[in-house]
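Our preliminary data section would be incomplete without showing what the modeling component actually yields. Below, a chain of 336 amino acids is followed by its predicted structure, encoded as tokens that our downstream tools consume directly.
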Amino acid sequence: MIEIKNLVKRYGRHMAVDHLNCKIQDGQIYGFLGPNGAGKSTTMNIITGYLAASEGEVVVDGHDILEEPEEAKKCIGYLPEVPPLYMDMRVGEYLEFAAKLKKVPKDKVEHELERVSKETSIENVQRTLIKTLSKGYRQRVGLAYALLGDPKILILDEPTVGLDPKQIIEIRELIRKLGQRHTVILSSHILSEVSAVCDHVLILSHGRLVASETTENLGKRSEMSGKIQMTVRASKKHLSMIFDGMEDVKDYSIEPSEEADCCDVVVEPEGRKDIRELLFYRMAEEKCPIRAMMLKKSSLEDIFLELTESDVIIPEGTEDENISEESEGDKEEQES
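Predicted structure:
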């Protein structure tokens, strides 16, 4: 659906996008995840034709964004972080105006307004001034604008920023519903949002793509930390002596436990092996009763922090596709 080839964006000496290569497949919800300034918005703006690339190609449904901009842009509905709304217009008037801007045929305008209003659940605010709407409803109107013309691809930049918890849930549910008919790309720095909505996640950090995973595989990564938590009735000195002599233990930490005469231990095995039985028998030999033992799962937040702290490690199966930090020039050098 979208193919990005050797994409580069420079602002003077600063390289905001560095020879990016990736493909967006049809019929999925993709999440661009990363810290603020990781390059998410710059990449999305280039895909939409809002920014011009310094080098490289973006092909949207077979149309090069530079050589066939009109055909490529017809395939895309774009909702920027701040929706382009006219606050003194009524919702219905604004959508009719937007339909004309998007060159929706006159005989189809009424049908299109009904369709997008129904999809975004804004039928009951058609005669309401946009400036009187809540932030959540303004986001819905922005989504309705993006849906005009029935584009194959929806690109949403931070679609839930500034919303309250109830509005966030509503917008997430709406995005899931839209994902049944459209390919959706959304950017966020909120891990829970991406994992709750997306089928596939691209994690950007320090100008690099550090992970390209399905959300299912991210969940599996959380179960593969290999660390083991234990509560053992023994002294810290005795336990340190035991773990120092075990080849299968890569690292460990020991803290006093709330249980009397016990320590809480976290053991990291070599090669992420499952050494629970080995630990059980060793503790039995040393007459150190185990009061509790369990595998410690990494949270998705732990995985995110691990990946975004690294500049170099690219997970297996991920191409070395680099995206540099956004600069302030993103806001200054914009082309419609």
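The first strand starts at residue 2 and ends at 11. The chain has a mean pLDDT of 84. Preliminary results of this kind motivate Aim 1 of the renewal.
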